[in-house]
């Protein structure tokens, strides 16, 4: 029995959601390559890249699929490296199911923000990855007294600031998507709570949920009206 509990604990600690997401994205990238290349606009549109005109025509699923697509080898390489290292830590903190919900909702949040504020075709897991950064910000705000969390939060805050500054001056970067994912991840983390680490105020969780849902609905409707 003790050995079984040990193996179960090891399984619970293994970041299989993070690994699973990486595998899915690599497989999708391979399929795109076989279909004509991940930088081919037609291939990107076929696989579900964010394109405002098509979303406004009813293809709402393009707010979900872009987070599984990548444009070029460097894009997927950098995103998968970041997802692996950040995802492992967030999955360990929030648990497998909460991590997956956080990743997906933050990714959608970033794509909705991009839909509202950017007319460019876009794709990539960056919206969801910025959501994981947002979750770190939530951990830092809620559990600042924990020295490990405080140090990680400071590190990732500096990383986020540098990325945003880079986004401001680099062409072709979906800044709205990144900021939307960051904000959505921060709010989703509050909504879900972190029972593995400690208790989060019920009031904060309710407020975060209301702001998250209200914000997503407003952004979506605003984008549809453009």
From TrEMBL:
Question: InterPro entries, from UniProt?
Answer: Peptidase_S54_rhomboid_dom, Rhomboid-like_sf, Rhomboid_protease_S54
SUPFAM superfamilies per record: Rhomboid-like
- Does the keyword Ligase feature in the UniProt annotation? no
Q: Pfam family example for this protein? A: Rhomboid
* Record protein name field: Rhomboid family intramembrane serine protease
Key words of the record: Hydrolase, Membrane, Protease, Transmembrane, Transmembrane helix
- Assigned protein family: Belongs to the peptidase S54 family.
Q: Which parts of the chain span the membrane according to its record?
A: 12-32, 67-87, 99-117, 123-140, 152-169, 175-194, 206-225
Q: How does it sit in the membrane?
A: Multi-pass membrane protein
Q: What is its main location?
A: membrane
């Amino acid at each position: 029995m003790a050995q079984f509990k040990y193996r179960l604990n090891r399984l619970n600690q293994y970041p299989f959601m993070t690994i699973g997401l990486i595998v899915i994205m690599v497989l999708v990238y391979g399929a795109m390559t076989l279909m004509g290349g991940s930088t081919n606009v037609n291939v990107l549109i076929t696989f579900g890249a964010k394109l405002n005109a098509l979303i406004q025509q009813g293809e709402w699923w393009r707010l979900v699929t872009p987070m599984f697509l990548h444009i070029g080898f460097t894009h997927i390489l950098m995103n998968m490296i970041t997802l692996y290292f950040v995802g492992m830590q967030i999955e360990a903190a929030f648990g497998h199911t909460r991590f997956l919900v956080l990743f997906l909702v933050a990714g959608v949040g970033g794509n909705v923000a991009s839909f509202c504020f950017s007319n460019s075709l876009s794709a990539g897991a960056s919206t969801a990855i910025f959501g994981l950064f947002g979750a770190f910000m939530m951990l830092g705000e809620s559990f600042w007294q924990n020295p490990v969390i405080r140090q990680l939060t400071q590190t990732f805050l500096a990383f986020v600031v540098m990325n945003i500054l880079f986004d401001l001056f680099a062409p072709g970067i979906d800044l709205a998507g990144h900021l939307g994912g960051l904000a959505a991840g921060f709010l989703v983390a509050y909504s879900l709570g972190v029972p593995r680490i400690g208790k989060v105020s019920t009031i904060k969780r309710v407020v975060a949920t209301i702001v998250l849902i209200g914000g997503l609905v407003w952004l979506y409707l605003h984008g549809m009206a453009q």
